[in-house]
């Protein structure tokens, strides 16, 4: 099992970030605004953080962080997440992943 699969298994929302990345904080705030509680993985605080970041880049995350997984599926970074929100698709993804249970906006 690869490192990304292990880190995202059985968690509805996982955000890979760095503690100093402002876009990571923005993405976290957006997801929390729906009532979800994302698992945050701070790559700059992990001993194998560089290895994980390389795996994210290989997956297509540009730049490496923030990288968002919803329902164990790679969604992308801040641009993709904001785009999904503008298209009113983010709430449905969170519902399907069981990160939230109701949404009525």
From TrEMBL:
It comes from the Eukaryota. Its main location: cytoplasm. Keywords: Cytoplasm, Redox-active center. Gene3D superfamilies: Glutaredoxin. CDD domains: GRX_GRXh_1_2_like. Pfam families: Glutaredoxin. Residues 13-75 form the Glutaredoxin domain. InterPro entries: GlrX-like_pln_2, Glutaredoxin, Glutaredoxin_subgr, Thioredoxin-like_sf. One of its GO terms (cellular component) is cytoplasm. It is found in: Cytoplasm. The keyword Nuclease does not apply. The keyword Cytoplasm applies. Belongs to the glutaredoxin family. CC-type subfamily. This is Glutaredoxin domain-containing protein. It comes from Arachis hypogaea (Peanut).
């Amino acid at each position: 099992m690869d490192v990304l699969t292990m880190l995202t298994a059985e968690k509805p929302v996982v955000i890979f970030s760095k503690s100093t990345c402002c876009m990571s904080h923005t993405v976290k705030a957006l997801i929390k605004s729906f009532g979800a509680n994302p698992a945050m993985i701070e790559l700059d605080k992990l001993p194998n953080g560089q290895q994980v970041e390389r795996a994210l880049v290989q997956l297509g995350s540009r730049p490496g962080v923030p990288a968002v997984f919803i329902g164990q599926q790679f969604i992308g970074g801040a641009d993709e997440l904001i785009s999904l929100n503008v298209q009113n698709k983010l709430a449905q993804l969170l519902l399907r992943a069981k990160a939230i249970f109701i949404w009525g906006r």
